[in-house]
Design goal:
about 25% helix, hypothetical protein PF0899 fold, binds zinc ion, three-stranded mixed beta sheet
């Protein structure tokens, strides 16, 4: 489950940011997960619960914002929504797609005190 190492990097980012701001603890973490980022949302929640223990984010709430996968279809010359990498264009069935969004995971913001 690669979500575990991803969750560890999230915890590091959160911990570093919180420490740099002189926070005592982290109240919540908002995480953006693109539909094409190959990250399982449920697995990510579980992994974060495990790695947050003992960190400044020990009791932090994890909010996950899921973002649609978007691509540019070269045949249609317009942006389209796709749910998986390698999916054909939903309009014309072409595979000439360039992924333009929803392909990454990042920490949007954190709430500290
Ligand atoms: Zn198309």
């Amino acid at each position: 489950m690669h979500e575990m190492s991803l969750a560890e990097s999230v915890r590091e980012i959160v911990d570093d940011t919180a420490r740099a701001s002189g926070a005592r603890r982290v109240l919540s973490v908002r995480l953006e997960i693109g539909q094409l980022a190959q990250v399982e949302v449920d697995a990510m929640r579980f992994a974060f619960e495990v790695v947050q223990r003992g960190s400044l984010a020990d009791t932090a709430r994890l909010d996950i914002v899921e973002v649609d996968g978007t691509a540019w279809c070269m045949s249609c010359s317009q942006p389209v929504l796709i749910t998986r990498r390698g999916d054909p264009c939903p309009q014309c069935g072409s595979h000439q797609l360039q992924v333009t969004g929803g392909d990454r995971m990042r920490v949007l913001d954190i709430e500290i005190e």
